[in-house]
Design a protein that fits this description.
There is one protein chain. This protein is of the alpha+beta class and 257 residues long. The chain folds into two domains: 117 residues, no CATH class; 127 residues. A hairpin with an 8-residue loop joins strand 5 and strand 6. 38% of the residues lie in helices and 21% in strands. The strands form two sheets. It has a five-stranded antiparallel beta sheet, with no helix packed on it. It is elongated and about 90 Å long.
């Protein structure tokens, strides 16, 4: 059986044109009456164009020759009838079609790279202020006021925290908390879970208070899921925090009602 693509090369140009800019009504009618499976061949040409175009994406950083040859061969397998020798059809049609191929390759590769870049682009984390506002707007969030302990390091600290059990996110707010020297000590949050052994509260993350800060917002970073928080406590620990606190310096606590 004769290959309709091989028998009428004018239709090849129409398929490529259809992929890139569309056809006139007359051209569309001619293509539809050619007996060619248009959609299937359209996919073959797109794959071929992408493969060929990718071989010259970055001239300053050429592909390894073996990979380049494989891409070209893959392109020809999709572009040419299976019985044609590798290189035959590409050599015969390249002069007339290289402009279309380059355009198709650029278009397809640009779309591919743009889509991948959008998927791989890291999403910027919301600021503590934005996170706090978002959590406060949720009906299932809890807001609790800090209570300073008698520890001399607590000072006149006040503030509150907002915690959302569903999303496991929260933000602490401190007003008047003493600046710490990160080389000597850091603050660490502990979350006591009613469904866990109270000897091992969940680590909520370490943080610092810079000099001159009157109000500090700190995101909560629980290392384990908190099923039912019954107490939040901030201690003063060695740099980097500890796995199990000795609770020698508990500065503030917040207990859900």
């Amino acid at each position: 059986m004769n290959d309709p693509m091989q028998a009428n090369e004018a239709m090849i140009d129409l398929i490529i044109k259809k992929a890139l800019e569309g056809l006139s009504a007359e051209e569309e009618s001619a293509l539809n009456g050619s007996g060619i499976p248009v959609q299937a061949e359209l996919q073959r040409f797109e794959m071929a164009a992408a493969a060929v175009g990718m071989t010259g994406l970055h001239p300053a950083q050429p592909l390894p020759e073996t990979l380049r040859q494989r891409l070209l061969q893959d392109a020809e397998r999709h572009f040419a009838p299976a019985r044609a020798p590798v290189g035959t059809i590409a050599a015969r049609r390249a002069p007339a079609m290289m402009g279309w191929w380059a355009a198709a390759a650029c278009l397809l590769v640009a779309l591919f790279i743009g889509n991948r870049a959008a998927q791989m682009r890291p999403t910027a984390a919301p600021s503590p202020q934005a996170m706090r506002a978002e959590l406060l707007a949720r009906a299932d969030s809890i807001r609790i006021t800090w209570t300073a302990t008698a520890d001399p390091n607590a000072g006149a600290v006040s503030g509150d925290l907002v915690w959302n059990p569903a999303t496991q996110r929260g933000v602490m707010r401190f007003v008047g908390m003493t600046r710490n020297d990160p080389v000597a000590h850091q603050y660490q949050l502990w979350i006591f879970d009613a469904e866990r052994d109270e000897r091992y509260p969940v680590d909520g993350g370490v943080f610092d208070v810079p000099a001159g800060a009157t109000e500090v917002l700190v995101p909560i970073r629980a290392v384990l899921p908190v099923r039912r928080a019954k107490l939040f406590a901030v201690t003063l620990e060695k740099p980097g925090g500890v796995v199990v606190s000795r609770r020698e310096h508990i500065l503030v606590t917040a207990q859900p009602g």
